[in-house]
Amino acid sequence: METKNLPRILIGAPSSGSGKTTVVCAILQALINRGCPIASFKCGPDYIDPMFHKEALGLASRNLDLFFNDADTIQYLLAKNSRHADIAIIEGVMGYYDGITGKSYEASSYDLARKTKTPSVLIIDCKAKAVSILAEIKGFKELESDSNIKGVILNRISPQIYEEIKPLIEEKLGITVLGYMPFLKECSLESRHLGLVTAQEVGNLKKILDRLAAQAAESIDLDKLVKLAQTAPEIGFTKPEIVCGKKVRIGVAKDKAFCFYYQDNLDLLTELGADLCYFSPLEDQKLPEDLQGLYFGGGYPELYLKELEANRSMRQSIKKALEENVPCLAECGGFMYLHETVQDKLGHSYKMVGAVRGECTYAGKLVRFGYIDMRAEKANLLCTEGMHIKGHEFHYWDSNNSGECFHAQKPYRSKSWKCVIGNEQLYAGYPHIHFYSNIKAAERFVNICGQKKTGN
What we know:
Active site: 332
Family: Belongs to the CobB/CbiA family.
Strand content: 25-35%
CATH superfamily of the largest domain: P-loop containing nucleotide triphosphate hydrolases
Pfam families: CbiA, GATase_3
EC number: 6.3.5.11
Site (Increases nucleophilicity of active site Cys): 432
């Protein structure tokens, strides 16, 4: 067992839409402006917020998810990814107590805070509220005796109301009010179907973040926030056994269309011996030379169907590689790209790689959503028969050929389905997977890639 002294704070909210991400970005930028080394994290499986932290703030943000990983693995990843930081700031998910089902705390912000012994700060949306704010804070603070809620920040509140309500909260509830953020219309960060927009799409982003940071420095007691983080106890963890094999070259699709990757997945592949070679299905004419494996993550291919179809030479290069049995892992949007065609929302079909028979079409709603435990029905690129790995699905497009290689089971629910097209050289399906839910899947992927000779 190893230990690490890591000042840390979790910033949660009573519900989504409370302004949590905006306030977190304001605090992160304000601390960056002070020269404070920070590690940022996101509770849950979301790709967008960590991407935003990385692209907009320059922070290598990671996910901490207690469905994918047990508490010891979470503490290891928290410590590992904070090794160069003076403070870790964890952004919560959904409502503070909302877990993987409507009746469970599991994998909630609260669950993460208690299992990592991290003090929490609650963002309270104060629009159209006054004294009723106290009832909301009291309910969240006292629902569980180990709530770990040690402070609050009031959002979307006027300076005048804040000065009146702050002493009332502290006197009646005995909780620290760390400050407030007023309503800043020009600084709103818009959303779309997969969450917060990506950083490249936010106009005047630097100006927005500078304005948010200036406001946070003025109206949030950052020194008190850091002191609260310093009350967190040491974290203890056991480092998992990771054995580096022989070097292999794995091509990773990375651009605006394919941008959903867990950084811990990529880091683990590197630790196992993979040399990751990034390429763009949108911009590059062909695959990098001498690849022994391919990895297509999710993203927004549906927004770039015309451009993906137009890059015929790349599509042909990928199809040729797969026909030559180059091992390939393709998740969600990457899986869609391997199909013969994908339709846009209007029903227009666009040619894709053609390595997977069938077509993806817009369903007009979430098709399958949420966490799943996946059991391999037959051996494939990631798993031997009977192996389990955890993943999640979130997509508005569906395929008429989703595969039957895995049995996917929703936790605490009776709902299940078949998914993934797979064999010894292929994993292609809608589920996103997290390698730290079963490191042996990552080892198997790298080892099979290592068996592929180069120069073909």
